[in-house]
Specification:
The chain is α/β, with parallel strands linked by helices. The protein is built from 12 helices and 9 strands. Strand 2 (43-46), helix 3 (58-67) and strand 3 form a beta-alpha-beta unit.
Length: 304
């Protein structure tokens, strides 16, 4: 079933994942990274210069994923392009069957390795959601007719754990009202904050029109957790979690167990429609996680 079909029907929990950044190697490089995760996910994010680092473009990766049999979610970031280029990317990718769009404002250039790059931010995230929704209705932002209108499913991101916490539900409502059909939530190591955010969305009825997909992250070590805490904007990893992984005899396994616990908590919350998975391990842990959570009972996992 398509991502749109799963969101419309809520027939089962949804699994999406982040595709690793690609810098070269053609379709073979994309295929090599896709094959281990494809059976376990419903759709896969094609990132757009994540963390303000340049990589192969979101449009090219989204088309490659589509070509190789995956359902892509093309991230579109406001940081690097003006409204003309953003609309061109969405409409251009739609020519190749890329229908799912995830709108992000984007990390500032100071988060990346080329901080001298000029910022654009012609639109912000909610504005881009509205523009993409309008494109799906057959109209450019200028009012010019777009015929035939592309079939688009527009989503966005939100951070349930960044202060001011109460404002995050308001942001979610703003994005939902602008047309977002799904929200992939930022990585959250604070179960209480995630629970409060989801409860706020349920109270506002946001979950009934916009699928909430908390993000969990697969890591191998306390060092990886410390890097996210220190270097990734918007992510806070409590010291007790970093200490727990650092003190473990097998830090990679303990890191996995932390993610498993966070995943089970997220899925226990009323209003949650599934999970979004970021995988920094690339060792089969994504398939293991999805299997242990029972998210894809239709997938038969074989071992050598």
């Amino acid at each position: 079933m398509t991502l749109r079909g799963l969101i419309d029907s809520r027939s089962r929990l949804i699994v999406t994942a982040e595709f690793p950044a690609i810098n070269g190697g053609g379709l073979d490089a994309v295929r090599a990274k896709l094959e281990p995760i494809l059976p376990f996910v419903d759709a896969i994010n094609a990132t757009d210069n994540p963390a303000a680092h340049a990589h192969a473009s979101n449009v090219s990766i989204a088309i490659a994923l589509k070509t190789l049999g995956a359902e892509p979610i093309m991230q579109v970031v406001c940081r690097d392009k003006n409204r003309l280029a953003l609309q061109a990317d969405i409409v251009g990718a739609a020519l190749f069957g890329v229908e799912n769009i995830c709108a992000l404002t984007g990390d500032d250039v100071t988060a990346g390795d080329e901080p001298e790059a000029r910022r654009v931010f012609d639109l912000d995230g909610p504005q881009l959601i509205a523009v993409a929704t309008r494109l799906g209705q057959g109209q450019y932002l200028s009012g010019r007719t777009l015929t035939p209108a592309p079939t688009l499913l527009v989503g966005a991101v939100e951070n349930p754990a960044a202060p001011p916490l109460k404002y995050r539900v308001e942001r979610a409502a703003l994005k939902s009202d602008a047309g977002a059909r799904f929200l992939q939530l930022q990585i959250c190591y604070h179960p209480d904050r995630l629970a409060a955010f989801v409860a706020g969305c349920v109270e506002r009825g946001i979950d009934t029109r916009t699928a909430l997909l908390p993000t969990v992250c697969l890591t191998k070590s306390a060092r990886s957790l410390a890097f996210m805490h220190d270097s990734v904007p918007g992510i806070d990893v409590p010291q007790k979690i970093r200490d727990r992984v650092a003190a473990a005899r097998d830090s990679a396994e303990e890191s996995y167990q932390v993610t498993l616990e966070l995943s089970r908590h997220a899925l226990s919350l009323t209003g949650v429609a599934g999970l979004h998975i970021t995988d920094f391990r690339h060792d089969g842990s994504l398939g293991r996680l999805v299997t242990e959570l029972g998210l894809r009972p239709d997938v038969v996992v074989t071992t050598a």
